[in-house]
Amino acid sequence: MSTPTMDDAAKVFTDPTAYADDARLHAALTHLRANTPVAWVDNPPYRPFWAITKHADIMAIERDNNLWLSEPRPLLVTAEADDFGKQQLEAGMGLRTLIHMDDPHHRKVRAIGADWFRPKAMRDLKVNVDALAKRYVDKMRDIGPECDFVTDIAVNFPLYVIMSLLGLPEEDFPRMHQLTQEMFGGDDEEYNKRGQSPEEQLTILLDFFNYFAQLTASRRENPTDDLASAIANGRIDGEPLSEVDTASYYVIVASAGHDTTKDAISGGLLALIENPGELERLRKDPALMGTAVEEMIRWTTPVKEFMRTAAEDTEVRGVPIAEGESVYLAYVSGNRDEEVFDEPFRFDVSRDPNKHVAFGYGVHFCLGAALARMEMNSLFSELIPRLESIELAGEPELAATTFVGGLKHLPIRYSLR
Description:
Blueprint: H1 22-35, E1 38-41, E2 49-52, H2 55-63, E3 68-69, H3 79-90, H4 105-114, H5 119-143, E4 146-148, H6 149-154, H7 156-166, H8 173-184, H9 198-221, H10 227-232, E5 235-236, E6 239-240, H11 243-274, H12 276-284, H13 289-300, E7 305-310, E8 314-316, E9 319-321, E10 326-330, H14 331-334, H15 369-386, E11 387-392, E12 397-398, E13 407-409, E14 411-416
Parallel strand pairs: 2-10
Antiparallel strand pairs: 1-2, 3-7, 4-14, 5-6, 7-10, 8-9, 11-14, 12-13
Helix pairs in contact: 5-7, 5-15, 7-11, 8-9, 8-11, 9-11, 11-13, 11-15, 13-15
Cofactor: heme
Pathway: Steroid metabolism; cholesterol degradation
GO molecular function, one term: cholest-4-en-3-one 26-monooxygenase activity
């Protein structure tokens, strides 16, 4: 079989700096949607894959989880890191979270934490989240009239929520933040404190695992009413979770549970600053907050991609894809698809319907989606009525990434009641 031709625009998927440059990224994605919606990407040090840029194709692949598998390649990493990760898993040391798993095991493991994110649990949690939102808006007022909204507010608010849900002590929060930053920020020089090699990244993972191994032992000996206890004492077919699955469960909840929300919150505020008419609409009509939050999530799309591998020969949009080949689900592109979203590059706080794919779709739909929505609703419902003025106080900076990311700095000048 002949080697497919690669569209140069598809190189953005393997370039972490592209996600730190919105104009360059979206120019490439717009071109690919129009000309090469199923794009071949062969750009070492990554193994080849097909990039899927149309919303309908992303949805169809997510829906068919028997044909399209998360294992063995759930996200984009270099070939070296991929091989190293598999070796670590075989040695009982690697990361194996919900995003790495397929049904039926995925469904059983997901069920262990699912009750903590259901509507009733969210209603019970809302009073505390609202109180935390007020605490952080008060902090914003107290440190004003300028701050870096990312590092001062957007990082800490969702971190506090998810750590509290797990039942972790507040003195451990900075450590969790640092570990998350290092794990998700390995492509960005500012976050990359320990290096990018697989061995250096493993030291970060081992820090997580060691911390959570102690937590597991504590919660098994003395269970408490928190998510950490539910994970520590979770059972699959009557058997306790393996050490790898237990530690991995903590890692995905503790890291993804706050980092993605931080990106949506900070990117959402920037969108309001850059679109003052939409900020004023939201100020005048607080009933728009629900649709505004969904638009912020679509606009920022903190999780840039997941990957799936074909379980048998198939095709997407007429392009043959062989068994064992992988596809890259370009969520950022799907969320700007002109066939799905009216004026997709317009930020609209009343956009409805808003069928974004920022939380994924199907069996891998984000476990914490309801929590993220609630946190954003609480924070902006507290902030916007108190906001007298706001403007940029410097240049916003996006993080380089190929997986999860958003703003790393958002300097603002403001006045708050």
